[in-house]
Amino acid sequence: MSLLKPFSKLPGLNTANILLVENEEQFQQKLADTVVLQEKTVNVNVRLARSLPLPMENEESRPRIDLVVFIIHLTSELSFQSAETSLKYLDPGYFQGKVCFLVTSARNVSVPPERLVSVRTLAASLHCPLLCAEDQTTEGVTTAACRLLAILKVAAGLVPMATGLYLSTLTRCTVPSDIDQQNFE
């Protein structure tokens, strides 16, 4: 079980690789299909995983992963725990603009508010973007795919004059210390 390293392989020409990590695999395939369909100018490769670490048997043929997206369903405590456990298998270099969290069901009234606060705190502590997505509608999936593509292109080095580290400073999640955390519904 080795760490996934962002710079262990050379990037492909006009290619971006994204890894979607989701424990329950409910939203992952829909999002992957939409990401590929939305992008016409760049060759986008989508890899799917339930959790990290990735299997060792295909490591030499695996392309460089430009962006790792952890999909967390707020209705499931296991989803958050799985993402939190998988984080230890990422090289620290990924936390320089190559990791993103995507949460679903943020508007669901049955979700305990402290679960969203936990995800926000995790994303803020790692200086990573936190995106909310509507996984029940086609428009929600398309919007999430477009947002991820924008981040992916920067993380892959396909946007001139922009880097993943620069983007992460602009889009990272913060948790204000002077505001009551329970009012972020």
Written account of the structure:
The protein is an alpha/beta fold. It contains five helices and five strands; from the N terminus they run βαββαβαβαα. It has helices at 28-38, 77-86, 113-125, 138-155, 164-171, and strands at 15-21, 43-49, 67-73, 99-104, 130-133. The protein has a five-stranded parallel β-sheet with strand order 2-1-3-4-5, with helices on both faces. Strand 4, helix 3 and strand 5 (130-133) form a beta-alpha-beta unit. Helix 1 crosses helix 4. It is globular, with a radius of gyration of 16 Å. 37% of the residues are buried. The mean pLDDT is 88.
Query: What topology, given as strand order, has the largest sheet?
Result: 2-1-3-4-5
Structural shape: globular
Low-confidence stretches: none
Determine the number of helices (DSSP H or I, runs of at least 4 residues). 5
What is the makeup of the main sheet? 5 strands, parallel
- Which H/E pattern describes the elements? EHEEHEHEHH
The number of distinct β-strands equals 5
Task: Determine the fraction of residues in helical runs and give it as a percent range.
Answer: 25-40%
Decide which structural class fits the backbone.
alpha/beta
Strand content: 15-25%
- Cα radius of gyration in angstroms: 16 Å
Termini, distance in Å? 38 Å
Write down the overall mean pLDDT: 88
